[in-house]
Write a structure and sequence with these properties.
Four copies of one chain form a homotetramer. The first copy, chain A, is α/β, with parallel strands linked by helices and about 160 residues long. The first copy, chain A, is built from five helices and nine strands, in the order E-H-E-H-E-E-H-E-H-E-E-E-E-H. In chain A, the strands form two sheets. In chain A, strands 4-3-2-1-5-6-9 form a seven-stranded parallel beta sheet, with helices on both faces. A two-stranded antiparallel sheet of chain A has the order 7-8. In chain A, helix 1 packs parallel to helix 2. At the A-C interface, helix 3, helix 4 and strand 7 of A face helix 3, helix 4 and strand 7 of C.
Chain lengths: ~160, ~160, ~160, ~160
């Protein structure tokens, strides 16, 4: 498989209803477009995205922090057990052609940092905004809505 | 997915013809039985097992040590990119319900250690034998051939 | 040793002269106060901080991403070799009682995320500023200068 | 520091009295020779080795599997917190110029595998013996006693 078709959805293990709605729609759209979803495998944004992808017949992979598959949300089809805690965040993004960030936990922030450090495009929906010395950093590609986010994740070169 | 259906095949990135033959047959049998194959994603035993599984219509996952998917053998369908070098060995075995060890590189030895440390059954085909203070250790379950190895991996409780 | 006396300095492997000056002074002040410096062990901010700490007689630990100690800057006294690439970022911050962030590479951003996710105080000198939905996030404790940063890192409870 | 002076002591978190006696003497001898001890930081062999090294005025580093320094044995002077579980085993051996294995838990076996895979000499005291296809593997350098083990760890090239 071409990794460009494997898209990470990153976001908090707990999330607002609005974030869950966005994540579920992102998951559904990824599946419709034939992409494979990779995420951290837990609840919140991750669960909502997996639920959406599964409902639309897509494949879901969960890179789990704990020592067994039992923490995986019920929509994870392929649980990868790392036992590495949050160090697994880097695996979630490195495995993907692009990452869609929804909402903003600190774990998501670490994943955004790892993705950008590795040259992996990050598309943002209601997520962190970054600035440095009073100047905004524009590395996170802003999306209008879930369909726009998936479009940008699947062809990050066309985002201008 | 129940992790009991996800079986790790561990073995060297370079291997003998006999080891490749065993690995390919193990991969084929895993696919026939509906199991998913997880491995380190590189050449040698890993490639032969993925080739066998793919030929029989099975799903293959490669947990890669490097920084991108390009090192994956051509039969890896889902490349997971860890960037963690040999620390990824622990992820290969922890993700699986059982591990089938073929041949004997030192990387395989580390994976056998991690599997046994985590209570994951190890089935051996032409692999390491362990002893301590002159007494043999019998934790590695010996298999007669690839079909026997897959039988034992899919129902490790019945191995007596 | 109490981990509260082990302070992480995080920052880019390449940095401006001003960032190097800040990092060196932070390292020197940490050593003067009897704290141990932990960092990623490479160049830029990490090297400047280690140089300052070493000059003032302090102990320096480098958590290295590569496969051997040869990438360590010359002021790392204890090189820890992880072979885990950027996944080592999480180890740098988890080992510390607090982290001082200088400048703003994306690796530093991932470390800030990991630190905050783990409840480890982050003190910032010319580093990232975070906001979400137009609202500033104030989890990074701002410092005026290197001495102030070290004060805040060694007694993060007194920062209000 | 030259990594050749940083020696890993690997062994079970629980151990026999004889193993503890060997480990403590190894730790003491390492400190007498000016070497730094690195280990997994927990109990059993690791604690006995750290106790010996500390009593003789040596420096001890513990690479911990958990999320904080509280699991460290009381003789660990520098706790490195990985939060990576047993994946930290690879860091213990990669950081060292040589590894001394005492006794034989499965975690120790994984560390022996990682060390040999990385070309790091392993010196054995009452530890695993390896064979393959009925032929003994002689990569583990056998030591007669703790002083001999430390001699061999500090000059592995002279072991013939």
């Amino acid at each position: 498989m071409n990794n460009k078709r494997l898209i990470a959805v990153i976001g908090g293990g707990q999330c607002s209803e609005e974030e869950a709605r966005l994540a579920e729609e992102v998951g559904r759209e990824l599946a419709r477009r034939g992409a494979v979803l990779v995420c951290g495998g837990l609840g919140g944004v991750m669960e909502a995205a997996c639920r959406g992808a599964s409902a639309a017949g897509g494949l879901t992979i969960g890179i789990l922090p704990g020592d067994g598959p039992k923490d995986a949300n019920p929509y994870v089809q392929i649980p990868i057990v790392t036992g590495m805690g949050y160090a697994r965040n880097v695996v979630v993004v490195k495995s993907a052609g692009a990452a869609i960030a929804i909402g903003g936990s600190y774990g998501t922030l670490s994943e955004i940092g790892h993705a950008l450090q590795n040259g992996i495009p990050v598309i943002g929906l209601n997520t962190w905004a970054l600035s440095k010395n009073g100047k905004q950093d524009s590395s996170i590609i802003l999306a209008q809505d879930p369909v726009d986010a998936v479009n940008k994740a699947l062809s990050p070169g066309d985002t201008g």
